[in-house]
Write a structure and sequence with these properties.
alpha/beta, Rossmann fold, formyl-coa transferase, domain 3, 2 domains, six-stranded parallel sheet, three-stranded antiparallel sheet, 11 strands, about 35% helix, about 15% strand
Length: about 375
């Protein structure tokens, strides 16, 4: 079966995580995505992780994940022939994804206004750390900076220590997803207007989307959340505990309260102190005492037993899995959450499957372009 975006032609002129993740989403939906790489290759080819920690541009786990379903071609923007080649491709393309800051665009002589004049139906998606305009537009940025400027760092870390950042490239992935959604909206709008447009995505702004209910609580109720270590803050904060990770017999459990029925914790853990009016009136204010009651009860119980008993009472406890356990989980296996793709250079690679599914069209899975193959292939027609 064909994908939902079959026939949509996309040029990906972006490296790193955000732009390529955007291209990956479009390719998974069936678009023909042509990735343009400099002679040195996308930076993620050198980022790893690598099997056995041996650097190999063919076997970077990050690159293989971000570029499934794409074709690739070597193109240098500083080369006159490369620029001519790009312009020819854009004339036949529907979408171009660009990951360069305004200063970088100026350095290579790219003007989006020229592209729009030459290719009025072209959708131009810019994915940068701080957007195309404003005082930060030409800041180097990066994941750490976007994470901090977007506000999420105020929630991660211990309250008595410096703030820390969550693992990985969470903001860059969020920005890539926003860009893909913006592209789909622009392609849909083009059906009615006949014109393309510029989709300007700032990773810093995308990071604010991660705040969710925390941001809403600040705007509507004036409640400002702060980092609180492993004790997560909910709303209302006085009734949002426990929301924490605690040890048990065979690992860790993420313990949650039911803020509509605060007495349920005492139904799970038979301790009269958990029904004391002062504790029920401010669960978060008595977090140390609640932990001291929960820990001995958890100590001789396994994760699955704890979760089963808690959820019977409508307490949303969950087990904390290792990466290997998550990949082998029966639920994930049944859902096909992870798939194994045979890559020409890396061999069979297990990675996340479809991020969403559509009823009438499949999510398309194909290997990322192998570097040794890319550099030897004849150029495609567009």
């Amino acid at each position: 079966m064909a994908g939902a975006l079959e026939g949509l032609r996309v040029v990906e002129l972006a490296g790193g995580v955000a732009g390529p993740y955007c291209g990956k989403l479009l390719a998974g939906l069936g678009a023909d995505v042509l990735k343009l790489e400099p002679r040195a290759g996308d930076v993620t080819r050198r980022a790893g992780p690598f099997p056995g920690d041996v650097s190999d541009s063919e076997r970077s786990g990050l690159f293989v994940h971000l570029n499934t379903g794409k074709r690739s071609e070597v193109l240098e923007l500083t080369d006159a022939r490369g620029r001519a080649r790009l312009e020819a491709m854009l004339a036949d393309a529907d979408v171009v994804i660009v990951g360069m800051r305004p200063a970088e665009l100026r350095d290579v002589g790219i003007e989006f206004a020229d592209w729009r004049h030459q290719c009025p139906r072209l959708v131009i998606a810019s994915v940068t750390n701080c957007g195309l305009s404003g005082p930060y537009a030409d800041y180097l940025g990066g994941e750490l900076i976007s994470y901090a400027l977007g506000g999420y760092m105020m929630l991660t870390g211990s309250p008595d220590r410096e703030p820390i950042k969550a693992y990985g490239e969470v903001v860059q992935y969020e920005a890539g997803a926003h860009a893909a959604l913006g592209i789909l909206a622009a392609v849909l709008a083009r059906r009615f207007t006949g014109q393309g447009q510029i989709v300007d995505v700032s990773a810093m702004e995308a990071a604010t989307f991660l705040l969710g209910a925390v941001e809403q609580a600040a705007h509507f109720y004036g409640r400002i959340a702060r980092r609180n270590g492993t004790r997560l803050l909910g709303f209302p904060p006085e009734h949002s505990y426990p929301s924490t990770i605690r040890p048990c017999k065979d690992g860790f459990v993420h313990c949650h309260s039911n803020n509509r029925h605060l007495d349920l914790l005492a139904a799970l853990i038979p301790d009269e102190r958990l029904l004391a009016p002062e504790i029920l009136g401010s669960m978060l204010g008595h977090a140390d005492e609640i932990d001291a009651i929960m820990d001995p009860w958890l100590a001789d119980k396994g994760r699955l037993a704890v979760v089963a008993e808690a959820q019977t009472l409508r307490l949303p406890f969950t087990e904390v899995m290792t990466p290997g356990e998550a990949m082998d989980d029966a639920h994930h296996r049944e859902r096909g959450s992870f798939v194994t793709i045979d890559h020409p250079g890396a061999g069979p690679v297990t990675q996340p499957g479809a991020p969403f599914r559509m009823s009438a069209t499949p999510w398309l899975v194909a290997p990322a372009p192998g570097w040794s193959i890319v550099t030897k292939l004849p150029r495609s027609r567009w």
